[in-house]
Design brief:
The complex is a heterodimer of chains A (about 200) and B (about 170). Chain A is about 40% helix and about 25% strand. Chain A is an alpha+beta fold and about 200 residues long. Chain A has a single domain, classed as 3-Layer(aba) Sandwich (Chemotaxis protein chec). Chain B has a single domain, classed as 60s Ribosomal Protein L30, Chain: A, CATH 3.30.1330. Chain B is about 20% helix and about 30% strand. Chain B is built from three helices and ten strands, in the order E-E-E-E-E-H-H-E-H-E-E-E-E. The chains are: A alpha+beta (about 200), B alpha+beta (about 170). At the A-B interface, strand 3, strand 5, helix 4 and helix 5 of A face strand 3 of B.
Chain lengths: ~200, ~170
């Protein structure tokens, strides 16, 4: 990939993250910040530890976009941050603490918010391509970071030895308790980037 | 619950992706955060040696010399890589047995058409063991949960931990 293509990818991630931050902010009714996304080529042997300790427990929401620009997206939050997000969503929906939640409610709330955020992300790319990019139904898992990151092996294992991912972090400024972080991985299928680059004229 | 009976100074070797490590008592071998990957252990219960591979992909074919350079990375080369490592330490091939865990499908659908990589890893590892003539003494594979494993070359037990579940011994 040449520097121009790297920049194009970064810019796309940047716009996507902006949309995602807006979506999250509307959902929560508070300001959400995001950092400038990174674009990284990750050696397959390093994917498990890419975000730090492979044994950290995380909420991960996975979705696919099958279109002319096939891409996988993963929204990753530390367990405690995901729990907090679910709590805030229930508060916003006026579901009181005392009410006993049905099993699966938290998963459902988190995967919906993940889907919304990733949908915002992908629709930003769609605007650029002048195309409608629909997402699949999200799949959620509470698991070890290392295990979640194996998704990169699944996508790239058959093709090569590096995975390409763009990553951004979202946080809530002024959140007195502590920082909240969420990461979005945008993982284009091998070969699908070429389509994008052609569209953008940075072949 | 622990796989290890004593509290002497124990070193735990964590086997990174695509690596192979060998140990004997009282040290322990571990793989952390296995999703679709496989943690494969071969051990010689008589001589007391054990080796662990952190397998990432089913096959080294179409990968040039990679299978030779990093045998632990592929199911088809990891078994023979482990045998070679263990024999060089004095284990006897005819005593070797195997245990494995991993090969989960983390999300309910797969991004590739060839099927989930976890299932392919399990099948390829079983096949490689069959070719090498090594008996699989225990396994816990598949499912939708990631696993961390610890193996003791003293008790020859593998402890399997998943998020939100009791740990198990095989």
């Amino acid at each position: 990939m040449n520097p121009l293509q790297m920049d194009a990818l970064k810019e796309i991630a940047n716009i996507g993250a902006g949309h995602a931050a807006t979506a999250l902010s509307q959902l929560m009714g508070k300001r959400v910040d995001m950092c400038v996304p990174q674009v990284d080529l990750i050696p397959l042997e390093a994917v498990a530890g890419y975000f730090g300790e492979p044994e950290t427990e995380v909420w991960a929401i996975f979705t696919r976009c099958e279109s002319s620009f096939p891409v996988s997206l993963v929204f990753i939050m530390n367990k405690s941050d995901g729990d907090l997000l679910a709590e805030k969503l229930f508060q916003a929906a006026r579901i009181q603490d005392k009410v006993r939640l049905l099993p699966g409610m938290k998963e459902s709330a988190l995967s919906e918010s993940g889907n919304m955020i990733m949908g915002a992300f992908v629709s930003a790319v769609g605007d650029l391509l002048r195309e409608n990019l629909p997402l699949s139904v999200p799949s959620i898992s509470l698991d070890l970071m290392g295990a979640v990151m194996d998704i990169l092996l699944e996508i790239f294992g058959g093709f090569g030895d590096t995975a390409l991912a763009t990553e951004t972090e979202l946080s809530f400024p002024g959140e007195s308790r502590r920082n909240f972080n969420a990461r979005i991985l945008l993982i284009p299928d091998p070969g699908s980037l070429e389509i994008l680059f052609r569209q953008l004229g940075v072949e | 619950m622990s796989v290890h009976p004593t509290t002497a100074e124990i070193q735990t070797l964590t086997v990174g992706m695509g690596e192979i490590c060998v140990a004997r008592k009282p040290d322990l071998l571990s793989c952390v955060g296995l999703g679709s990957c496989i943690g494969l252990v071969l051990y010689d219960p008589i001589r007391g040696w054990a080796g662990m591979a952190h397998i990432m992909l089913p096959s080294s074919s179409s990968r040039g010399s990679q299978g030779k350079e990093k045998p632990g990375k592929f199911a088809d080369t990891a078994v023979f890589g482990l045998i070679a490592e263990l024999e060089s330490r004095g284990a006897l091939r005819s005593f070797l047995r195997a245990k494995m865990a991993g090969g989960a499908r983390m999300f309910s659908f797969s991004p590739t058409s060839s099927g989930a990589i976890g299932e392919q890893n399990v099948a390829a590892t079983r096949e490689a063991l069959r070719i090498a003539g090594i008996r699989l003494e225990g396994e816990e594979t598949g499912g939708t949960k990631g696993r961390s494993i610890i193996f003791s070359p003293e008790t020859f037990l593998m402890e399997i931990r998943c998020v939100g579940q009791e740990s198990r011994l095989i």
